[in-house]
Amino acid sequence: MSEKTALPVGQEAIQEKGWWKAHRFLILRRLTQAFFLGLFLLGPWFGIWWVKGNLAGSMTFDILPLTDPFVLLQGIVGQHWPEMTAIIGALIVGVAYALIGGRVYCSWVCPINPVTDAAHWLHDKLGLAKGWQPKRNTRFWVLGMVFVVSALTGTIAWEFVNPISMLHRGLIFGMGFAWTFVLAVFLFDLVVSRRGWCGHLCPVGAFYGLLGQGSLLRVSAVNRAECDDCMDCFAVCPEMHVITPALRGADEDTPIILSPDCTNCGRCVDVCAPDVFKFTTRFDTTPAPARASRRNKQRQPEASRAA
Amino acid sequence: MSAANKRKPKPLDRRRFLQDAARAAGACAVAGMALSKLATDARALPAQAIRPPGALPEEDFLAACIRCGLCVRDCPYDTLKLAELGIEGPATGTPYFTARDIPCEMCDDIPCVVACPTGALDHGLTNIDDADMGLAVLIDEERCLNALGLRCDVCYRVCPVIDKAITLERRHNERSGAHAIFMPIVHSDHCTGCGKCEKSCVLPGESAIKVLPRRLATAEAAEHYKLGWEDRNPMVDELIDLPDRLPGPGTDNLAAPGGYLPEGLPDPSMEGGFSPSFGLPGAGGSGQ
């Protein structure tokens, strides 16, 4: 910790880098979320049918099929072998997210992300306690449960409750009472569990995380030697445990954030005044010396052993 | 991180791991049961929600339909819609239509089936006349105008499979005693369940003829009754062919072989006569 820890999150970055550079990935992300939602809304709102369907399955320009591989996989587990169109669509989506990071879906596309981000913003403003914090692997249990229920009932089980589909399909085709699921997620994140839904429970995020385990696009704490311990990156990161191994690693540890939990949202890049983080590939071998404090700590045991 | 890896696992770690796993598994079991309940409840498709042409049976449909709505988008008549949570009965997000609002127009190219990426609408359906969305049932004979003896005929006229799926059957009008009733009769082997009859029924409000799911609209055939006018073959192949009994004295006026030949009957030896084609053991009546 340093004296800068006490400063409001991101303030130093704004002073040093200017407002735009301290918010660019956040703004880009919101624009991207709006862009993808907008593509789907062009048809029903303005009659421009470039993209038909929703996030579960879509057809773009009557030629490009896209299918949510998680939804399709549940159907296969539920004993329906799909037509080729859906399989091709799922492969395209699967390969794309495997390359750019599975949870890029969570932070750049998913319509629930603005909802939970809003819940977190309010949670912060109100200074609420972090509440129930399930274990990190809970979402994988939920993921497994979804597949088991799909197999037992012969249905695409998660689609009965998936707040992502509820919101997205609701906006495009008609909401009904689907907004109650969205409100439930908002309230859950606001008062029950900080960063609870996206960060701990959502099996869609768990699935895409697994999908993007070997993704090329990654954030790297390449300038970690410059870190001044202001803790802003931890404050903004929705999956803060992913930062520690990279940022606080030793010389020989990679500065690249390799955890599949990282959503590649880029908010840490924004808020870091000394520009410790940047987007790169997982094969980036730029040397990244550890932070000075870390080095000192490492030397001590060696010294004591020598003595 | 690395420090934790280097630490030797203690019995306490294993205990902790097992406890956490049990807790997570228990929570998942509870959540899974709730989810299964939702999933099985969703199969209870309301009778008046009709699935698009080619839709798989409901128990397969929910594993196949990803609820993308592409069938809805490619329906040229805006017939199809996606179910909205808490407003309509079908599983949320799945496609259906309400015949009384907008029926299926039975497009020849079946665009909804072509649009379906997963085959929840069976791509094997290429002739719309083979579609089986449901079965029209004349459900209110007390108010159907034709059944009352008037000539409405609208359901019959609008039927895309006219004279096959719906025919008008002439009956005597018992009320007037002098007129006919042209009764609309639905034939299940030709009705596709498009719902045009239900849509066009001139009665205000609910229609007298409604498309229902086949599971509700049809009974199971009575296999134990033999419809002699449809199938003249004996039910049991090895059935003993009992002798045809002929008129004659001493046997309740039935002729037995070698018996008396009644007058008026031609002599069997003559042309045009008859003789039994079998012989019975013993003479005279067989005591049957």
UniProtKB/TrEMBL annotation, chain A:
It comes from the Bacteria. The keyword Cell wall biogenesis/degradation does not apply. Residues 218-248, 254-282 form the 4Fe-4S ferredoxin-type domain. Keywords: 4Fe-4S, Electron transport, Iron, Iron-sulfur, Membrane, Metal-binding, Repeat, Transmembrane, Transmembrane helix, Transport. The keyword 4Fe-4S applies. InterPro entries: 4Fe4S_Fe-S-bd (IPR017896), 4Fe4S_Fe_S_CS (IPR017900), Electron_Trans/Redox (IPR051684), NapH_MauN (IPR011886). It holds the Pfam family Fer4_5. Residues 287-307 are annotated as: Disordered. The chain crosses the membrane at residues 31-51, 81-100, 140-158, 170-192. This is Ferredoxin-type protein NapH.
TrEMBL record, chain B:
InterPro entries: 4Fe4S_Fe-S-bd, 4Fe4S_Fe_S_CS, MauM_NapG, RnfB_subfamily, TAT_signal. Gene3D superfamilies: 3.30.70.20. The lineage of its organism: Bacteria, Pseudomonadati, Pseudomonadota, Alphaproteobacteria, Rhodobacterales. It comes from Aliiroseovarius zhejiangensis. Keywords: 4Fe-4S, Electron transport, Iron, Iron-sulfur, Metal-binding, Repeat, Transport. This is Ferredoxin-type protein NapG. CDD domains: DMSOR_beta_like. Residues 245-288 are annotated as: Disordered. It comes from the Bacteria. Transmembrane segments: none annotated. Pfam families: Fer4_7. PANTHER family: DIMETHYLSULFOXIDE REDUCTASE CHAIN B, OXIDOREDUCTASE. Residues 55-85, 135-171, 182-214 form the 4Fe-4S ferredoxin-type domain.
